[in-house]
Amino acid sequence: MAAPFSSADFERLATALGAPAEQEGATVRFALAHAPSGRRLAVEVTPEITLPDGVDAEKTALVSVYGANAFLQLQGVTGFVASEDLGEVIFFARQGGRVSGLVVEREAGCSLYANVSEKLLSADFTQLPPEIMMSAVALSMSEPLFE
User: Fold this and answer.
1) In whole angstroms, what is the distance from residue 109 CA to residue 90 CA?
2) HSE of 126, CA atoms in CB hemisphere, 13 A
3) Domain encompassing residue 112
4) With CB atoms 3.0 to 4.6 Å apart as the test, which of 76, 81, 101, 134 could cross-link to 93 if both were Cys?
5) Euclidean distance between CA atoms 52 and 29, whole angstroms
């Protein structure tokens, strides 16, 4: 299921990330830089990729993040939350009781949370082990998108 990335959505992403949306074919690219830390990221959103026959879904949305020392990719994106106040966008993929999320920050930071049980998203965060609390809190932002 492809996420509904419209022109308005790309404007919301650009505002939250503080970077213009640059169209390159079917892909929209955001170049992020944070001079004080020297961090730089390129974020590419491909709203719809057609998959070959025999794959679970016929189409998928894809977000790729290119950094100096890392490459991260979230396939099957089903939604996102963009926050201008926080200066970040959280892209979500949800399937089979599991949620994965890619958090992209305006200051060229990025975090990936993968394969998190949906049950953790509505758990009492104060009762969770600290090692998984952060992922549950971040990904809980996805719950309203999928109700």
Assistant:
1) 12
2) 0
3) 7-117
4) 76
5) 25
